[in-house]
């Protein structure tokens, strides 16, 4: 795992022992949190003492997910929201702050791949992918920034090694490259405000992401589990006040690209 770390002198930065006291534990909102990396992250956050708001498009599915965790409304808030709809995401942020009294972190996790390329892909599917993978995280940052500025909180954007090492004509790589740029753009914007920004770029992870792949499964070779990435997310959020981890790249041993 490679990291880039910067430090800040702002004593209000949240996520670690030096951060502000939060009755009941820190509050974190995650998009696309009912499956794969998102679901594993929710479980890890709850175990670490966070209160968590989880979003997705289907309220019933979110509530069923909450039931599987056995987590009550005092620590887990399911909120239906289209990640590409600013008003819906802002309403989810507002609901989180209203329910838990604050917001200490947001995780832009929702995303998908069309598993195609510039030569043979469907532009209409690209449109939806770009909206979810790029516009969605930008919308979350905009909606959450006032609350995060108040708490000295953290923003985590879940990218991909595909956004660092492109493959020929891969439109998913294009979307994740844009997200990589968004992370740095956001970091420069908020530097000095007490808000931290982190890009986490996983390599191949065995999740339902691969269900839409033509093969129906992850490519042959080494893979990570969702828990590996969830652990990285919780590690980032748990850094002490004054420490900002800007990028984390996590590949399974043996993955070249």
TrEMBL record:
Pfam families for the chain: adh_short (PF00106)
Class of enzymatic activity (EC top level): oxidoreductase
Biased composition, class Polar residues, residue ranges: 1-10
E.C. numbers: 1.-.-.-
Region of interest (Disordered), residue spans: 1-27
Domain of life: Bacteria
Keyword match Oxidoreductase: yes
GO molecular function, one term: oxidoreductase activity
InterPro entries, per the entry: NAD(P)-bd_dom_sf (IPR036291), SDR_fam (IPR002347)
Protein name: SDR family oxidoreductase
Species assigned in the record: Streptacidiphilus alkalitolerans
